[in-house]
Specification:
Helices cover 34% and strands 4% of the residues. It is mainly α and 100 residues long. It has a two-stranded parallel sheet. This is RNA-dependent RNA polymerase.
Length: 100
């Protein structure tokens, strides 16, 4: 499905309705024919039906997935990690006013 296909344009219209929900109280209801049934392989959705993406992103994904480190991409960002990666040279005058 490409960006200018009718299903994608329909989803874009629903997205616009969803964004306006706080003002209009009109919910964006996604019809079943627009719901995703399978995902491209590069999304790595465990437990979901996938297909081999033929687009560039799918080809790149398959080229690098076996050479990239097999570590979890999700890590907790701890205070210790923040402290180690903090660079005071990037501070801007008055930044303290915006810290909670």
């Amino acid at each position: 499905m490409k960006a200018m296909s009718e299903p994608c344009l329909g989803l874009a219209r629903l997205f616009s309705i969803a964004i306006d929900f706080p003002k209009t109280a009109v919910p964006a209801e996604i019809p079943s024919h627009l719901r995703v049934e399978e995902y491209p392989d590069f999304m790595e959705k465990p437990g979901k039906t996938t297909y081999e993406s033929k687009d560039v992103i799918g080809k790149l994904f398959r080229e690098v997935k076996d050479i990239a480190p097999h570590t979890s991409s999700i890590r907790l960002f701890t205070k210790e990690m923040a402290r180690r990666s903090y660079n005071p040279d990037l501070e801007v005058d008055g930044f303290v006013d915006y810290i909670d």
